[in-house]
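ok new one. same drill as before - structure tokens go in, u give me an amino acid for every spot. 238 of them this time. try not to just spam alanines like last time pls lmao
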């Protein structure tokens, strides 16, 4: 039986001593695409920030590839193979597409390797190749989101964590994003996706966790969650 690449157990975390997460437990198996879904303010982003070391747990632990990373600094967690693409894209607006991508690979010393990764990503995101010399601020919302994902992939992560990819995008672009994420996962990258568009996320995920007020209230195969009357009523307005 394969071991989870990521295992979060009884995680309590918050800000300034105020808890936001109340005993979150979840796991991600190698090669999976797992979605954490729920309304705004449910604790999804706090979960992601705590896993990648931007926030530290009050209690509980986070195991990545068998190692306890609960209190490691974010840059050390990145080196271990977790890449986090935060909500709101957080690009360097005045830098070019190429420069933004290069910054995503700052833990890689070989320029040759960095260039090779860029070319691989230009194949996945041809629009970025066409805009390579443009500054990030001149890109459309959808193109900026593609750049944010591509930058997250530049460190060749074992686990890619994506936070609210659909934010501010029109529906056709959201669909395109979901296709891209599915494709990245099929090519071998394990993905943990946080999304408030519950249906869209569960349609592409293998498994899902539904979070409410800092607690996991439902979990299971994504197909089962999509069919659950309770989930459909509460989260999809059906």
């Amino acid at each position: 039986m394969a071991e989870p690449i990521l295992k979060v157990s009884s995680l309590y975390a918050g800000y300034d001593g105020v808890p936001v997460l109340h005993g979150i437990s979840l796991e991600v198996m190698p090669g999976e695409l797992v979605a954490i879904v729920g309304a705004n303010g449910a604790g999804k982003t706090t979960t992601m920030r705590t896993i990648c070391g931007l926030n530290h747990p009050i209690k509980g632990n986070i195991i990545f590839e068998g190692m306890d990373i609960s209190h490691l600094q974010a840059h050390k967690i990145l080196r271990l193979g977790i890449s986090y693409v935060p909500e709101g894209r957080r690009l360097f607006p005045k830098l070019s597409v190429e420069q933004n991508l290069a910054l995503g690979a700052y833990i890689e010393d070989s320029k040759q390797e960095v260039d090779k990764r860029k070319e691989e990503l230009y194949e996945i995101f041809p629009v970025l190749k066409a805009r390579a010399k443009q500054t990030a601020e001149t890109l459309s919302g959808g193109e900026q989101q593609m750049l944010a994902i591509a930058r997250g992939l530049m460190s060749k992560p074992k686990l890619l964590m994506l936070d609210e990819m659909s934010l501010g995008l029109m529906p056709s672009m959201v669909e395109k994003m979901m296709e891209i994420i599915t494709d990245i996962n099929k090519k071998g990258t394990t993905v943990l996706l946080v999304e408030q568009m519950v249906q869209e996320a569960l349609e592409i995920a293998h498994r899902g966790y539904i979070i409410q007020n800092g607690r996991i209230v439902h979990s299971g195969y994504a197909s089962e969650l999509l069919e659950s009357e309770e989930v459909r009523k509460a989260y999809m307005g059906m």
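The chain is about 40% helix and 25% strand. and btw The first strand starts at residue 6 and ends at 15.
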